[in-house]
Design a protein that fits this description.
The chain is built from 15 helices and 15 strands. It is of the alpha+beta class and 415 residues long. A seven-stranded mixed beta sheet has the order 1-2-3-9-4-8-7, with helices on both faces. Helix 1 packs across helix 7, helix 9 packs across helix 12 and helix 9 packs across helix 15. The longest helix is centred in the first third of the chain and has 19 residues. The radius of gyration is 23 Å and the shape is globular.
């Protein structure tokens, strides 16, 4: 195994098994808790792929559907098997990945073997696929009736023309009901092959012990050629709707304001950190105007913002709640047109971010998933942390240039 040199005294190692699986092991000597995360870069946006050069179009929500099905086993529900071993297990599907993970304060070997088993086989038939459809459709209805989730999805629909974030992670009732056994098996065989995946283990056990457990577990051997590539249509830089409103059973209006811009950088994870820092400098308590906005009821505690960078474009989102969303729109657009950087405040916020990042190294669940997410974004997690430590004003001035030109989408949810 190759040791991952870092400035944080972390005993971290990486290797690629003969089958192509990327394995990360972080030794936490003297600690009892262990966490393992096993994931694939197949998420909700990966609807269009090629297999050996032939185009494959997946149904919306298929990554999420597949996550549900992997927990079924001939010996019963796998979650209960983790519980019997003294481990707590779960999984999630995001737009960019699907991750299965567990934590335990007991011995590592049995739950780690179970996690590897979970990924390396699939126990489905036509009846189980049909049974799952009703469960997922009900889950979709629940999210649809949640005002925050509903506003988020409407926001995406008004921003994205081609990019699949305009679709719900779970798909639609139609896409779920039209999903077949063949769809699920094809997606599994394409995206759950070892070379498409990563396994991260954070534990007090030694790296050699952990690696022996992993190597002695049966894993899938994919016969034939399975060359899988993701395909994304070019996303235009103009939004779908510049202004929109709709009614929803709520008491207080909610709103979103989105800024879509060209992005041609190659370090998405670090540049997202830089843009978040810039947003914090201008739209948080670090800015004296923030308290004025609160006092004038233009924003309240619901107010939030974030950024998402993709190949070719990025989007900054703001969310708000209240009766003065027209003023919210005005002040945010005005400030976005005159973003500022105050050096002392900048140093303060980057130190805070770095401190939070170091704290995450002791939060095993978050740590394992952060390492995996960085891997899928082709970034060494420790290099990313060092970048935060060594950040300069020149870096943030560089990303600020991306926010000089943008298209805007405003959406209001009204009672």
């Amino acid at each position: 195994m190759k040791k991952l040199n870092n400035d944080f005294q972390e005993n971290a190692y990486h290797t690629i098994l003969d089958n192509g699986l990327n394995v990360y092991i972080i030794e936490k000597k003297g600690f009892k808790k262990s966490v393992a995360a096993y994931g694939t870069s197949f998420g909700a946006v990966n609807l269009l792929q090629t297999l050996n050069g032939e185009q494959v179009e997946h149904k919306q929500g298929l990554a999420h559907f597949l996550e549900h099905k992997l927990f079924e086993d001939e010996e019963g529900d796998i979650l209960s098997q983790f519980t019997d071993l003294g481990a707590s297990a779960n999984a999630f599907t995001s737009y960019d990945q699907t991750v299965y993970y567990f934590s335990t304060n007991h011995e590592l070997e049995a739950p780690l073997k179970l996690l590897i088993k979970l990924i390396n086989r699939i126990y489905v038939d036509h009846d189980s696929i049909e049974k799952e459809k009703g469960i997922i459709v009900e889950e979709l209805k629940m999210y649809e009736h949640n005002p925050n989730m509903n506003l988020l999805m409407k926001t995406y629909e008004n921003v994205y023309r081609q990019f699949p974030m305009k679709y719900d992670i779970g798909g639609t009732a139609d896409s779920v009901n039209n999903t077949t056994l063949e769809d699920v098996l094809l997606a599994y065989n394409m995206n759950y092959q070892p070379s498409q995946m990563a396994l991260v283990v954070v534990s007090g056990e030694s790296k050699s012990t952990i690696l022996d457990i992993i190597k002695n577990c049966p894993m899938r051997n994919i016969e034939g050629s399975w060359d899988v590539k993701d395909v994304f249509e070019e996303e235009p830089l103009d939004v779908v709707k510049e202004e929109d409103s709709y009614q929803f059973p709520i008491q207080t209006p909610k709103a979103s304001l989105s800024f879509k811009f060209k992005y041609d950088g190659d370090n998405l994870l670090y540049d997202e950190f830089l843009i978040r820092s810039l947003l914090n400098l201008n739209f948080s308590q670090l800015n004296d105007d923030f308290q004025v906005w609160l006092d004038q009821d233009i924003i309240n505690s619901y107010f939030s913002f974030d950024v998402d960078l993709r190949d070719g474009f990025g989007v900054v989102y703001f969310f708000n709640e209240g009766e003065n969303n027209h003023l919210f729109k005005e002040i945010i657009i005005d400030r976005m047109n005159q973003l500022t950087i105050e050096e002392n405040t900048f140093n303060q916020i980057t130190k805070r971010y770095f401190g939070e990042s170091i704290l995450s190294l002791s939060q095993y669940d978050r740590y394992a998933i952060n390492v995996m997410s960085a891997h899928f974004r082709k970034t060494n997690y420790y290099d990313y942390l060092k970048s935060i430590k060594d950040v300069s004003l020149n870096d943030i001035e560089r990303v600020m240039a991306y926010l000089k030109d943008f298209s805007v989408s405003f959406l209001e949810m009204r009672p």
